[in-house]
Design brief:
It is a single chain. The protein is mainly alpha-helical. The chain has a domain of about 35 residues. It is about 50% helix and about 0% strand. The chain is built from three helices and no strands. Helix 1 runs antiparallel to helix 2. It is elongated. The protein starts with a helix and ends in a 40-residue tail after the last helix.
């Protein structure tokens, strides 16, 4: 369980880093792109290349962590727990005496006669 928790924390940090790097990139509308001098290693072109490479590696790491977390989750929650919680000793409930043989739907043959109705005399 501690491995699952550790990988979850690492994935949350990678996700936050990925969001931050994506927001720093320059979009067509300007976005939150970082500026700088046009020349040099960290100029506009150098920063774009660095951010693109960083985004690629963070995305690969995020997908890899997602697969690893799914594999760890399957190993920690095996199928034995699900089948062992089923209670197979329950007996079926007794049929309701008010229901007809057809499961609650009264057929015309089972319809009670007017003399069997206790409320029939009250309206007369």
């Amino acid at each position: 369980m501690s491995l699952f928790l550790f990988l979850t924390v690492v994935q949350a940090l990678v996700a936050a880093g990925l969001v931050g790097v994506i927001l720093m990139q320059r979009s067509e509308g300007g976005g939150l792109g970082i500026g700088g001098s046009p020349g040099g290693v960290m100029g506009a072109r150098g920063a774009a290349d660095f951010l693109t490479r960083t985004t690629r590696w963070l995305a690969i790491l995020f997908v890899g962590l997602s697969i690893a977390l799914a594999a760890v989750a399957v190993d920690t929650t095996g199928a034995d727990e699900v089948s062992s919680t089923l209670d197979r000793s329950v007996t079926p409930a007794a049929p309701d005496p008010l229901d007809g043989v057809t499961g609650g739907v009264v057929s015309p043959a089972e319809d009670a006669s007017p003399t069997d109705d206790p409320l029939a005399g009250a309206s007369e």
